[in-house]
Design brief:
Length: about 325
């Protein structure tokens, strides 16, 4: 706050305090010509009378003491613009002290899991419960409280991972975030194959997870266009590339919806998905706990089997 604004605030505070003092003094003083306390001639309903009695002296003195306390309070805690109070107290300092104390308690709670492997943490029910709490507070906004995601937000309960599903890959995703970009191909494809080019590519992409569609006319036309444009990221067989976040097109999982219109929208206009980095916000240990919880959703404790297939609700 600039000095000019500080003086403006100081003037307002001083005027308000002086105004309160003047008002108390003015209203507590009787003057010549004032009616007697019992003689105002204001009556209602025959027996209700308005009197002109001043407040008791002890009450008025209490107000003066309150104003004096206000002056001391303002000078001690600060209330004069940008100038610190004599006691050097500030809400920011109070918050910093409280945060430091809370962080110390949290560090003590999380210390046993520092640097531990994700899959090892996931075997500890107490750690998984901590990770779930961290997930609910920070991740559920996008992925949902059940972690089943929504359109544009991955389902974390299945076995499909665009950036890799190993413990370390999941931890990297949580710590440093991910940014997946699907370019706009509508104009390019239209130039290569006409107005039906995007629909043809959609038909071919669908045939990768449903071979019965592979002989459709549009799918055959789409394969040529796919080979010329899409293989760089998704591969010749459509298996994707986890290093780029390019999804596997053979698994029938569609992050942005599985209708012809939604897939066509992804191809023609592109997509830009961002997973924020949580390293600075949560720190490494809390990120490990959250990642361990996510990993545990598809790897239940004590299970040596492959993770369950995605539920229909997750294929969005």
């Amino acid at each position: 706050m600039s000095a000019g604004w500080s003086w403006y605030v100081i003037a307002l505070v001083a005027l308000n305090l002086l105004g309160c003092v003047w008002l108390l003094w003015w209203t507590s003083k009787r003057r010549p010509g004032d009616p007697k306390p019992e003689d105002t001639s204001h009556f209602w309903d025959g027996d209700i009378t308005e009197y002109n009695k001043p407040m008791p002296r002890w009450w008025i003195n209490g107000f003066f003491l309150l104003l004096a306390f206000s002056v001391v309070y303002i000078f001690w805690y600060g209330g004069l613009g940008g100038y610190d109070g004599y006691g050097k107290w500030s809400s920011a300092g109070e918050h910093a002290l409280a945060k430091a104390a809370d962080d110390a308690r949290l560090d003590e709670t999380f210390a046993p899991y520092k640097g531990q492997p994700i899959d090892a943490i996931a075997q500890d029910p107490a750690a998984v419960k901590l990770g779930q709490a961290i997930f609910n507070n920070n991740c559920a906004t996008c992925h949902g409280s059940s972690a089943q995601g929504a359109i544009g937000f991955p389902n974390l309960r299945d076995d499909i991972w665009h950036w890799g599903g190993s413990p370390e890959q999941i931890l990297t995703t949580v710590l440093d975030g991910r940014e997946g970009v699907m370019p706009e191909w509508g104009t390019v494809l239209t130039g290569m194959g006409g107005d039906s080019a995007v629909v043809s590519v959609v038909s071919y992409v669908r045939s990768l997870s449903d071979p019965e569609r592979s002989q459709d006319y549009l799918a055959v036309q789409g394969q040529r266009l796919y080979t010329g444009v899409c293989v760089a990221c998704h591969g010749v067989e459509g298996k994707g590339n986890q290093a780029l976040g390019a999804p596997d097109l053979t698994d029938d999982y569609w992050l942005y919806g599985d209708s012809t219109a939604q897939i066509g929208e992804s191809i023609a206009r592109g997509r830009h998905g961002v997973m924020p980095a949580w390293r600075d916000m949560l720190g490494e240990t809390r990120s490990r706990l959250a990642a361990a919880y996510v990993w545990s959703l598809s790897h239940p404790a004590g299970s040596a089997t492959a993770p369950p297939a995605a539920k229909e609700t997750g294929r969005q």
